[in-house]
Model the fold of this input.
Amino acid sequence: MLKKIVGAALMSMAMPVMAAENIKDLPNPEINTGMPLMEAIAKRKTGREFSAKKIEDQDLSNILFAAWGVSHDDKRTIPTARNLQKMNVYAVFDEGIWLYDAKENNLAKVGEAKDVIPFIAKQDFVLQAPLTLIFTAVPDDKGYAQMHAGSAYQNVGLYCAAKGLNNVVRGMIDFDEIGKVLGLKDEKVIITQTIGWPYM
Ligand SMILES: Cc1cc2nc3c(=O)[nH]c(=O)nc-3n(C[C@H](O)[C@H](O)[C@H](O)COP(=O)(O)O)c2cc1C
Done:
């Protein structure tokens, strides 16, 4: 009996630690940052050079908010067909694969980066970059899934332009293998986007 009670007590102590390790809370996204919109639009471009500089949590939160945050009336920073909000955004960084929960403003660790990197890093510069986003959705016959991912990567591209970050949208990836690593069932990988700081 005592063994059971001690066991249960240990488990209840251990569980929150386990959960905390797998959940990464993000700082609130900053709304008053960046540059004038038209300047960011003019500056948006692909950059394929990445220094080792880490992306701090504040930028990570801002990037994810730009891509897929909840901004108004329980809706997103991008428009979605019939407001169904059918997309998921994963972030590969710091040796983990993390699923973004916009409502909770956190990330849940769902895998190890080393398992997915061979399938996203078909171009060498990806190995240097600190962050890759993976957009996933259930494909549909109207192409809405691609439209949503495109809206999200454009928002991220504008954020990067405003902050001096480099980014490149990347379709040169192994879609099926990434899907397997993520454990996708009905969803498919739509596109990826690699982000990081240029050499200063
Ligand atoms: C859907 C899509 C897929 C892309 N895939 C790749 C890719 O796999 N590798 C790459 O280096 N660039 C990729 N790009 C970046 C394009 O090459 C780039 O956007 C294009 O050359 C125009 O340059 P800009 O973004 O600076 O205007 C992709 C862009 C889009 C929109």
Observations:
- The longest strand covers residues 188-196.
